[in-house]
Amino acid sequence: MTARAVAFVLLSALFAGAAAAQGVAADRAACERSYKPERGQEGKDVVWIPTPDTVVQRMLQMVDVTPADIVYDLGAGDGKIAIAAARLGARAVGIEYNPDMARLAQCYVNAEGLGGRARVERGDVFEADFREATVVTMYLLPDLNLKLIPKLLRDLKPGTRIVSHAFHMGGWEPEQKAVVDGKDVYRWTIPAPGTPAYARAMAAARQ
Ligand SMILES: C[S@@+](CC[C@H](N)C(=O)[O-])C[C@H]1O[C@@H](n2cnc3c(N)ncnc32)[C@H](O)[C@@H]1O
């Protein structure tokens, strides 16, 4: 190939990439014409505040998300964690109580062209069926994390990884902790029933 031809191919690829990015931005803006959420707005059990991008990336890294994973984000907000997990090739599901927010998040998923791998459903994290998850992500509150422990232990397979932005699980000690741009991130793995680790996790829920 001549130098001119190489330059043409590279420029074409660059323009195609820029046009695609513009298309996604326009589609996302269209989603917001139906509903535009505000940071700190009320949710059922916790307000909506999005996890910063750097923290999202670190959360998914800490639980080693791969295309083999099924990632559930409990309290999905605008779907950014589900979208980031789907970009890594995983199947991703967000559970969001606020129906307008769930619709917006699904609109963003579609705008990103990730509808085949990700979805955001309207639901309550305390009732939703997330037994198929291999990874669970959360940005809730300490008391909600504690309230969720029995369901996490009962429903998830041993070996399922859990990552939480900002909030720990009391006496259920995390196996890893990181600080990203001043925000705490914690990781746990669901232990097998009957093990001391399982008993410790269950005891944490009763504290
Ligand atoms: C702090 S935001 C986190 C959003 C997203 N996971 C993130 O990290 O960017 C918590 C979200 O949980 C939702 N929420 C509150 N209570 C809920 C419940 N019981 N079930 C499902 N979602 C809930 C709120 O509407 C809000 O969007």
Could you explain how this protein is built, in words?
This protein has 207 residues and is α/β, with parallel strands linked by helices. The protein has 2 domains: 1-34; 53-206, Rossmann fold. The chain is 43% helix and 18% strand. It is built from 6 helices and 7 strands; from the N terminus they run H-H-E-H-E-H-E-E-H-E-E-E-H. A 7-stranded mixed β-sheet has the order 3-2-1-4-5-7-6. Strand 4 (135-138), helix 5 (142-155) and strand 5 (161-165) form a beta-alpha-beta unit. Helix 1 (3-34) runs antiparallel to helix 4 (99-111), helix 2 crosses helix 3 (80-87) and helix 5 (142-155) crosses helix 6 (196-206). The protein is globular, with a radius of gyration of 19 Å. The model has no long low-confidence stretch (mean pLDDT 94). Bound molecules: S-adenosylmethionine.
Write the layout of secondary structure elements.
Elements: H1 3-34, H2 53-62, E1 70-74, H3 80-87, E2 91-96, H4 99-111, E3 118-122, E4 135-138, H5 142-155, E5 161-165, E6 176-180, E7 183-189, H6 196-206
Parallel strand pairs: 1-2, 1-4, 2-3, 4-5
Antiparallel strand pairs: 5-7, 6-7
Helix pairs in contact: 1-4, 2-3, 5-6
S-adenosylmethionine (SAM) binds at residues 43-46, 48-51, 73, 75-77, 80-81, 95-98, 101, 124-126, 139, 165.
